[in-house]
Amino acid sequence: MKVILFGPPGAGKGTQARRLSGKIGIPQLSTGDILRENVKYQTELGKAALSYMEKGELVPDELILKLIKERLSSEDIKKGFILDGFPRTINQAEKLSELLKEMEIGIDVVINVDVPDKVIIERNTGRRLCSDCQMMYHIEFSPPKKEGICDKCGGGLYQRVDDREDKVRYRLKVYTKETEPVLNFYKERGLLKTINGIGAEEEINRRIKEAISCKL
Ligand code: AP5
Question: Most distant CA pair in the chain: distance in Å?
């Protein structure tokens, strides 16, 4: 199964991709997570991407496409994958189609997780991550047992620089201008399913699974 999880910043794509990946045993490919890992280890890609990420801008397509090409050539994606945070421009969507055509595989479904801007601001500004194991929390919706400390490994929690309210508002603008048009690209190809992204995580997961099974 090849799925794209689509939606504005903080819609819950990562949360849902991780759940789905655990349940159906196919990898989550998150361009955001791969970039943050590269920033952490100060690789060439990380150094080149950092200034864009800090500002809430998109990292240039050529860097992202190189990263995706490498990731899609791995053995573990043979059974399928869940793309999270990619593609985010029409150019990325077109290049992905070309790449998958060469590999003789196709996307089964694109799931658009629909969440209004007000909730997007709440979800992003309240998000916290563990600096050691990257476990994700929300100060209101899924808080750790002890403030600022990861339940799983005891590491310290931090806020992503791009999760400050001004940066979140800017990321939303970038989403509307650069990324939202990609929805039409997949709608025209009959691959798009939109689900309501408001509700408990389990309920949203149920809606996603239902949308996937309708398309298979
Ligand atoms: P990326 O990491 O992809 O950020 P994003 O798309 O902005 O998405 P997020 O990771 O912020 O949110 P999410 O939808 O995964 O939500 P989550 O599950 O975490 O990208 C970061 C940057 O990298 C970009 O700005 C760009 O610079 C660069 N980049 C990445 N990919 C790129 C590409 N393809 N092209 C160019 N540049 C690229 O949930 C958010 C919060 O909400 C959490 O705290 C969670 O606990 C909470 N939550 C989740 N679900 C629920 C729920 N149902 N109810 C209540 N709270 C919930």
Answer: 49
